[in-house]
């Protein structure tokens, strides 16, 4: 289990799936919690559903929006490629994203640009945020992108309840290199040597303590 300092940085985990209802059903079977619908992201032509993992963190189930094409050219999180649903990345809380991005660039870590995002909730309210480019993948998604919700309410406050994130760790063939990048952001996530990159979450839920990867 990682130190509590890491969990304080986690904003959300990203579970990528080919079709939203499929991903919602998979997570419901695993956790015993049915995700609440989130909304659409026009820039990336994606849509999502959410499960709260605490008062200020959540699991995002994200899938292509079949009715639209991405303005940015490609969808993030590998959604344009075929494959099984999986935990494909995570977002860390941050402020002053331009300064964070510039400091990372000086260390040789490319986070891409900083963008404004928005989506409309099913009830009609709009959430606004800024984030570093989720299409810019660092260390196979084990290094997070960063997000600032500004004055918007945090999505976890209205997401389906019943689950809690209790652990987050990773595996990677170049574990030492990944740990060094994470340490540059003061993110103490355990990274073990493994044959393939993997993000691994431990979640307490109605089905007990389960592992999602």
Explain this structure to me?
Helix content is 18%, strand content 37%. The mean pLDDT is 93. The protein has a single domain, classed as 2,3-Dihydroxybiphenyl 1,2-Dioxygenase, domain 1 (Roll). The chain has 4 helices and 12 strands; from the N terminus they run H-E-H-E-E-E-E-H-E-E-E-E-H-E-E-E. The radius of gyration is 16 Å and the shape is globular. The protein is α+β, with helices and mostly antiparallel strands and 213 residues long.
Keyword list:
2,3-Dihydroxybiphenyl 1,2-Dioxygenase, domain 1; globular; single chain; 213 residues; 37% strand; eight-stranded mixed beta sheet; alpha+beta
Summed up, what is this model?
The chain is α+β, with helices and mostly antiparallel strands. The protein has one domain (4-212): 2,3-Dihydroxybiphenyl 1,2-Dioxygenase, domain 1, CATH 3.10.180.
């Amino acid at each position: 289990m990682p130190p509590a300092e890491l969990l304080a940085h986690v904003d959300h985990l990203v579970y990528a799936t080919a079709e939203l209802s499929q991903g919602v059903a998979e997570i419901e079977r695993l956790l015993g919690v049915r995700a609440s619908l989130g909304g659409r992201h026009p820039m990336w032509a994606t849509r999502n559903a959410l499960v709260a993992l605490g008062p200020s963190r959540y699991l995002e189930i994200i899938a292509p929006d079949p009715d639209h094409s991405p303005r940015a050219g490609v969808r993030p999180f590998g959604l344009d490629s075929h494959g099984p649903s999986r935990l494909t990345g995570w977002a860390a809380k941050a402020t002053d994203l331009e300064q964070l991005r510039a400091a990372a660039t000086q260390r040789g870590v490319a986070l891409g640009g900083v963008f404004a995002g928005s989506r409309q909730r099913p009830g009609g309210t709009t959430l606004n945020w800024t984030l570093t480019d989720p299409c810019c993948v660092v260390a196979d998604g084990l290094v997070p992108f960063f997000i600032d919700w500004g004055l918007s309410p945090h999505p976890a406050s209205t997401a389906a309840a019943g689950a809690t994130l209790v652990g987050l760790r990773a595996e990677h063939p170049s574990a030492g290199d990944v740990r060094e990048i994470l340490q540059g952001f003061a993110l103490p996530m355990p990274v073990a040597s493994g044959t393939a990159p993997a993000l691994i979450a431990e979640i307490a839920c109605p089905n007990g303590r389960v592992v999602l990867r």
